[in-house]
Amino acid sequence: MEIKKSKPIEALKKGDKMIVNGVPLVVEDQILIMEHKKDTKEMALVLISEKTKKRYQLRYFPHNLEGSLELYELDKGFIYIRIDKDITSVEW
What we know:
Layout: E1 2-4, E2 17-20, E3 23-37, E4 40-48, E5 55-60, H1 65-68, E6 70-75, E7 79-82, E8 89-91
Parallel strand pairs: 1-8
Antiparallel strand pairs: 2-3, 2-8, 3-4, 4-5, 5-6, 6-7
């Protein structure tokens, strides 16, 4: 997996641009999904494609970014379904 960072992923905020597997996306929010232990947080970037209006979550653990990135797509407006396609590149 190729990751190109302009700043730490935790610093991304609404309006920031990302490219995941060649698809341009815009950050809508950054959320804490769960704090497993005091220093182990499961995070998600809420993303939208301006072209298709599809919504996604890019989930990750900050301490294991490369090994934990997973992409989910919003389905039927209320549930995120994991996309089985491997993430090959992420850029911000």
